[in-house]
Amino acid sequence: MFFYQFTGIKIKSHQSVLPYFVGKIFFSILSLGFFMIFFSCNKKQENKEFIKENTFTNGVEGPATDHLGNIYAVNYHRDGTIGKVTSDGIATLFLELPSGSIGNGIRFGNNSEMYIADYTKHNILKVDMKTKKVEVFAHQPQANQPNDIAIGSNNTIYASDPDWSKETGNIWKITKEKGFELLEDNMGTTNGIEVSTDKKRLFVNESIQRKVWVYDITDNGEVNNKRLFFLFDDYGLDGMRCDDKGNLYICRYDKGTVVVLSKEGKFLKEFILKGKKPTNITFSNDYKLFYVTIADKGNIEKIKNIL
Predict the structure, then answer these.
(1) Do residues 63 and 291 make contact, with C-beta atoms less than 8 angstroms apart?
(2) In this structure, are 113 and 12 located in the same domain?
(3) CATH number at residue 52
(4) Would the CA dihedral through 98, 103, 108, 109 be positive or negative?
(5) At residue 28, what are phi and psi to the nearest 5 degrees?
(6) Domain match, 273 and 144 both
(7) Residues 27 and 65 in one domain
(8) Average pLDDT, stretch 15-44?
(9) Which end of the chain is more exposed for a tag (fewer CB within 10 A), N or C?
C-alpha cells in the first residue's frame, strides 16, 4: 500500500499496475518526441543585411575571412577593387587591383597570404597582407576566366574556369612551381569549387547543368575517381564552402538560398536569403555565422548558422 500511496495512484490491491505505467511511459515518450520535433522545426533562422545595399557592385563575389574575422570581397563600390568589412559591419576599401584586373574568388593561403582569381587577365594574384603588394602568382592565357578558387594541401590552388557562352568549363591545379595545370576540360559551366575539410576531396559544381561533382585528391594534388555528388532540379549554382564538420554549403543563384549537403551528399537544410542572387559564401572563424555576397543588392548578408 505504501507504493500506491506514494505515487498518488488509487489502485485496488488486487489490480496490476503494469498496464498503467506502460501506458503512461508510452504517452510521455510520444509527448517528448512531439515537442522535440516542434521546437526543432520552429528554430528560427536569423539573418540580416551585414552591410547596406550597393556598398559593392553587382559583381560582388569571393568572400573570404582572415584570422581576425574580417571579411574581404571583390568590387567595393567599383570593379577592380577589394573591400574589407570588419566583424561589426564597417566596410572600407582594402586595395586597388592592377589596371585591367577584376577579381572573382578570394582565398587565404596557409601563411595568411591572399589569393585572388583575376578573370579578366587570366591570372591568380597573390597579395601580401602587410604591405598590400600585389603580384602575379600564376598566369594562363588559355584559361577562359579563372573564376572561383579553393586551396588544398601544400598551398595547392584549384580553380574553376567557365566558358559561359558555350556552357562549358575546365578545372585547373595551380602551384608556384608549375603554374596552371589542366585537370579536366569540356565539363559543364564550372563555377563553385571547394576542397573538403580533411583535404582529401575536391568538389566542383556546374552552374547551368546544376550538378555537383566530387573527386578524390591524390598525394601529388591530382584528382581521380570522379562521381556525381548531387543533382539539383532547378536554379543555378554558384560559390561553395565546407564547414568544420565537412558539410557543403552551396549558393543557389536566382533562388536566393544556400543549400547544405552532408559530406555523404545528403540534403540537410536550405537557408532562405533576403537577396535572390547569392554568389559566394564564407564563414566566421568559429563557424557560428556565415556571410553571403548578394549580386542583386550589392551587399553581404550575415546568417546565424543554426546547424
Answers:
(1) yes
(2) no
(3) 2.120.10.30
(4) negative
(5) -65, -40
(6) yes
(7) no
(8) 45
(9) N
Tell me how many domains the chain contains.
2
The answer to whether residues 15 and 140 belong to one domain is: no
Task: Looking at the structure, tell me whether residues 212 and 297 fall in a common domain.
Answer: yes
- Backbone dihedral region of 153: left (phi > 0), alpha (psi from -120 to 50 degrees) or beta? beta
Three-state SS letters, the chain: CHHHHHHCCCCCCCCCCHHHHHHHHHHHHHHHHHHHHHHHHCCCCCEEECCCCCCEEEEEEEEEECCCCCEEEEEECCCCEEEEECCCCCEEEEEECCCCCCEEEEEECCCCCEEEEECCCCEEEEECCCCCCEEEEEECCCCCCCCCEEECHHHCEEEEEEECCCCEEEEEEEECCCEEEEEEEEECCEEEEEECCCCCEEEEEECCCCEEEEEEECCCCCEEEEEEEEECCCCCCCCEEECCCCCEEEEECCCCEEEEECCCCCEEEEEECCCCCEEEEEECCCCCEEEEEECCCCEEEEEECCC
Torsions phi, psi of 280, nearest 5? -165, 175
pLDDT greater than 90 at residue 145 = yes
Same domain, 123 and 261: yes
pTM across the whole model? 0.85
The residue range of the domain holding 238 is: 47-304
My answer on whether 89 and 23 are in the same domain is no
Share of the chain above pLDDT 70, in %: 86
Identify whether residues 257 and 288 lie together within a single domain.
yes
Q: Which among 210, 194, 191 has a CA at the least distance from the CA of 202?
A: 194
Q: How many residues does the chain have?
A: 307
Own/partner pairs, 90-93, CB within 8 angstroms, 24+ separation: 91/51, 91/55
Q: What is the pLDDT averaged over residues 118-147? A: 97
Q: Are 64 and 108 in contact (CB under 8 A)?
A: yes
C-alpha grid cell, residue 101: 584586373
